[in-house]
Amino acid sequence: MKLPSLVTRVTSDSSDMARRRFFVPEIRRGEAELTGADAEHLVRVLRAEVGQRYEISDNRRVFVAEIEVARKSMVTFRVIEELPVAPRVAEVQLFAALFKFDRYEWMIEKATELGVDTIQPFQAIRSERGLFEASNKRRARWERIALEASQQARRARLPVVNAAAKFHDIVRADCGIRVLLDEENSASPILTVLESRDRKPHPEDTIGLVLGPEGGWTDEEKSALHNAGWLACSLGSTVLRAETAALAGLSVINSVWRR
């Protein structure tokens, strides 16, 4: 995509943090459009008007853009300047066994805010019956939750929310570093496991974090994961809800790779 010569790279300042950010389908010849519910939210809720400036992302780069048209069904932006995007610290993939949807959706929202790149739901042996089939109808909603959380968190790129998989499909996931959250106290602390690696954290690292359902892992599942190279680790002596464990694990990963 080639943008007009008026687009220049600038450094952000404190005023940038006050701007709302929106994701647009594409930017073509220096212009972008929002339609449907997104446009209506801008016009009716945020009272957007011609001449106001927002930040927009095409899921690759971020720009300051000015509104040229503001109608209930469509908002058109004109690109003003490109903003710098923080470098990625690593690629983080969350493999989360299915559990009750209200808490699962909260997990998706918060994992997105924490910068996760991929969310992969899957059916574990102890996942509640019916969740796998019902998840197919929820995927569009989950993608919407990830979109709104990305805008709120001012991300440059959206996370991928995959369709639910079976357990055997995720065991040998293509991740360079595989971390298994184990509810057993005998497992080493997650920070110890991550810091004991010979190689220092690198932006090209791909980290997989897998957590089980509300009922916990079966011995067969843990054995399969261990044999596939997943590193068992603990988040402490207390029993955490699945969604809490996911966010605690992601926070530790972020801390290690952002040093």
Task: Please outline the helices and strands.
Layout: E1 21-23, E2 31-35, H1 36-45, E3 53-57, E4 62-71, E5 74-83, E6 91-97, H2 101-113, E7 118-123, H3 131-153, E8 160-161, E9 165-166, H4 167-170, E10 177-181, E11 188-189, H5 190-195, E12 206-211, H6 219-227, E13 231-234, H7 242-257
Parallel strand pairs: 1-3, 6-7, 6-12, 7-8, 7-9, 10-12, 10-13, 11-13
Antiparallel strand pairs: 2-5, 3-4, 4-5
Helix pairs in contact: 2-3, 2-7
N→C terminal distance: 34 Å
- Work out the count of structural domains: 2
Tell me about the biggest sheet? 8 strands, parallel
What's the SSE pattern? EEHEEEEHEHEEHEEHEHEH
Count of separate DSSP helical elements: 7
Question: Can you give a write-up of this model?
Answer:
The protein has 259 residues and is of the alpha/beta class. It has helices at 36-45, 101-113, 131-153, 167-170, 190-195, 219-227, 242-257, and strands at 21-23, 31-35, 53-57, 62-71, 74-83, 91-97, 118-123, 160-161, 165-166, 177-181, 188-189, 206-211, 231-234. The model is unreliable at 1-15 (pLDDT under 50).
Summarize the structure.
The chain is built from seven helices and 13 strands. The chain is α/β, with parallel strands linked by helices.
Keyword list:
Ribosomal Protein L25, Chain P, 259 residues, alpha/beta, 31% helix, 8-stranded parallel beta sheet, 5-stranded mixed beta sheet, Alpha/beta knot, 7 helices, single chain
